[in-house]
DNA sequence: GCGGACTGCTTACCT
DNA sequence: ACAGGTAAGCAGTCCGCG
C-alpha cells in the first residue's frame, strides 16, 4: 500500500472508532492534547539567544512549555511559563448569573476563577464586556467528557488550543530569537538594515496604521535563519509476507534495522543480528563512511536509537507519524520499556518527542501549498519518498530485487540508509532551503514547528489572523457569528454546485499570432482585498452610514470607518513581497542574504496565494462568502475595464484568463499608456509577464501553446502534455513541438506544417502496424478513492483496477492505474494483463485526432483532412 | 429495441 | 480540506421513432 493510502486507511479506522464512541468532529479537532512530558531538557535560568522552535502544554507541570534551540551549543533548552497563565474561555453570561444559574461551571473540578474583561467586537464595531472563565487545565475548558465549554450557552475562543492561546497572549513568535534572562523569556531585538527600513517607510508614507505594523513584521524577514542540528531516522521491520506492511499498533515483529543520518555528519545503520542472515557484499552505493553496527538484542538497539533521538533538537522522518515512530513506541512497550524510557510521546494526530521536535516530511510535502511551491503545482502523484526525492534531489530510493527479510545485512543497510539519507537531504538540499522555508513560515503564521509542518495553509492563515486579533484585543468571532450576519451571495456560479461566480476567461481565436505580450496583474486578488478594504468585519458592516459605500456591481457595501484586519495583513504581505523582497532577492549582492530574501518572498507567496480562497471555504473559521464573492467580482471588473481601455488605445487583446491579457503585436508606447491608466484608474499593477515569439491558440479556453523569444516552448492545457496521456502520444506531440520551436516567422510556417503532418502520419502508421509497445499505449489515471466508493459510474481506470483486484493485485487510493484500450466487453484492460493484439486501434486513432487536433486547429488545418486519404497501410511514402 | 441528445461523473488542467 | 472555470472521455438516462 502507498503511504498515502495507508494514512487514509488509518484515518478511517480512527474515525470509525470515534463514531462509535459518539464523539463529534469538532471535539476531536479542537481538543487540547494533554501529554505528560516525562523527560526534560535542561531548564536554565539564562541562555544565549535561541530560536523558539515550539510551544506546547506540559500536563505534568500544568504549564506552557517553550522549546528553545541554542545555535551556539546545538542544544534544546526548556522554559516553563512563570507568569501563571491559565487556559480560559469567554462567555456573555455575566458573573452573577454564572453563580446563580450555572453552578456546575463554578463547581467544575477544573474551575479556577472568573474575571470580567473588555473586548472589541469587530463584527458589531463596539466594545463588549465578557466574562472570562479561567480553568486549571485545558481539558476543563474543552475536549473532555464534561468540560465547561459545553455547560455554557455561548462561548468564544474556547476551541483554540491552549498552546496557541498562550502564544497569542504572550505574543510569542515561533522561529524568532528569544533568550532566558533571570528565569524570564525575553525577545531578542533584531536589527533591520536602514535601507530596507527606509524603503518600506516610504511605501507607507502618511499611513500610520501600516507604519506601526511594519516595524515588527520586518524583523521576521530580516532575522537570520541559523542552521538547525537535525537527524533523520528510518526503520525497517521484519515482515513474514511480502506486500504486507507491518501494523505499527500491534508492533508484532522485530525492528531489524534503523538508519541514522544527521546534518552534523553522523551516518549509522543499526542492525539486529538474526540467525541465517548473510553479511553479503557492500553495495557500491553505500557510502564508505557509514558506520554499520550489530546488536544482539532488539532492546539494546532501540535503547541506542532513543539515545540518539534525545540528542537532537529536530528529528526528521518520512511518514514517522503513521509508521516509524509509532512502531518504535509500541514495540518498545512490548519489549518491556517503561513510558519514561521512551523519548516518544504519542499524541492524537501525530508522534511527538519529549525533548526535540519531530518533523514528518511526508506530511509537510503532502501539503498542497508546499507541493505547488516545490513542484510547480503539478503531479498529484508526488507522494512517495521516491517520487519527491527524484523530483527535488534527482536521486531515488534503492530498488529492491527481493523481499526485505531476504536481504543480506549489507543490502539491508544500504536500503535503510538511503531512506534516512534522502529524508535528511530533503531539508538540506539547496543550502537548507526547506528548513529555512519552514522557519519563515513559522514566523509568519506564528505556529510551532510541529503544527506548521502538519497543517494546511488555511490553518496557517487562521493562526496568523488570530494572533493579530489578540494583539488588538479583538474578540475572535465564532463562525456562526460571521455567517448569521454575512451569508448573502448574489452572483451565480457557472459551474453547478459552486457557491458564487469566479473569474472571466476570454475565448481565444484559433490560429497563430506572432509577437504576443502576456501582461498580468501583480497579485490581483490580494491587491483588491487591500484596495477595497475587504475583510469579514468590514464587508456589510453594521453602520447605516456605510451602506452607501457600495462595491461596484454588487449589493455589498464596505466600512468607511476602520481598516479590515485581513485587508491590512494581506495588503502588507503583498506590498512587502511585490515592492520590497522580490526586488531585494534580485538585487542583493551578499549570497546568504540573497537566498534569505528569496525564501522570504516565496514564503509570503504561499500566504498571498491562498488568502482569497480561504474566505470562500466553508471549513475556514473566518469564512465570509461576501468577501470571496466581492473579490472575484472586482477581479472581473478589473480585467473587463482593462480590455476596454486597451481597445480604446488601439491595442488588440486576443486572450485573457482571470488576471492576464494577451496582447498581439503591441505598440510599446500604447502599452505603457495602458499600464499607467490601470494603476491610476484601478489602483492595481499591470506588468509584462511573458513575451512570446508567437502563440498558437487551438480556439479553446485554457488551451494554447506559446513559443518564447528564445525558442522555449510553453504549453498550457493541451492533451499532449497531460500526465495521463499515453507515452507514444506524448512523444509524438513533443516531436511536433520541437518542429514548432524552430519557427521564427510566418515564412517558416508552411515547412513546419508539412513536417508536423508527416510526424502525425508516421505516428499513426506505427500504431496500425502494431509497432508501439503496450506500456507506451497505457493511460495512467489516478484512483482517487477506494473501488467501493465509485457508485454512480464506472470510469475506465476503475474497470481496469477491478480487473487487477480479481487477478490478486491490491489497489488503493492514490495508485496510478495503467490501462490500455482493447476490443471486447469492457473496452479496457490493465496493462499488466493485456496483449498487444487485443489493442483497439480505432480508439487510439481517435486519441491521435484529439491530441493533434488542438495543434492543427492552431495551424489552420483540420485533423481529419490530415489523416484522411491515407488510411491504407504503406500508401503514404515518407520520402514524398 | 435502437440511436442520438443530453446530463452527470471523473480526472487533469488553468488562473 | 484555499477558490471557481474549462476540456475531455465516458457512463448512464431520456426520448423519439410506428
Structural key phrases:
alpha+beta; six-stranded antiparallel beta sheet; 29 helices; disordered N terminus; DNA-binding
How would you explain this protein's 3D organization?
With 880 residues, the chain is α+β, with helices and mostly antiparallel strands. Helix content is 41%, strand content 18%. The strands form six sheets. The protein has a six-stranded mixed β-sheet with strand order 13-12-11-10-14-17, with helices on both faces. A six-stranded antiparallel β-sheet has the order 19-20-18-21-22-23. Strands 3-2-1-8-9 form a five-stranded antiparallel β-sheet, covered by helices on one side. A hairpin with a 4-residue loop joins strand 11 and strand 12 (267-272). The longest helix is centred in the middle third of the chain and has 37 residues, at 409-445. The structure holds a DNA duplex (15 and 18 nucleotides).
Blueprint (SSEs and pairs):
Blueprint lengths: L2 H18 L4 H6 L19 E9 L4 E8 L4 E6 L7 E4 L3 H7 L1 H5 L3 E11 L4 E10 L2 H4 L6 H4 L3 E2 L5 H9 L6 E5 L2 E4 L6 H10 L4 H15 L7 E8 L17 E8 L4 E6 L18 E5 L2 H14 L2 E4 L2 H15 L9 E3 L4 E3 L3 E4 H6 L1 H8 L9 H9 L15 H37 L3 H6 L2 H15 L7 H7 L25 E11 L2 H8 L33 H23 L3 H21 L13 H24 L3 E6 L2 E5 L3 H15 L3 E12 L6 E5 L4 E4 L10 H15 L7 H20 L5 H4 L1 E4 L13 H12 L8 E6 L6 E3 L10 H18 L4 H5 L13
Parallel strand pairs: 10-14, 12-13, 14-17
Antiparallel strand pairs: 1-2, 1-8, 2-3, 4-6, 4-7, 5-6, 8-9, 10-11, 11-12, 15-16, 18-20, 18-21, 19-20, 21-22, 22-23, 24-25, 25-26
This protein binds a DNA duplex (15 and 18 nucleotides) through α17, α21, α22 and α27.
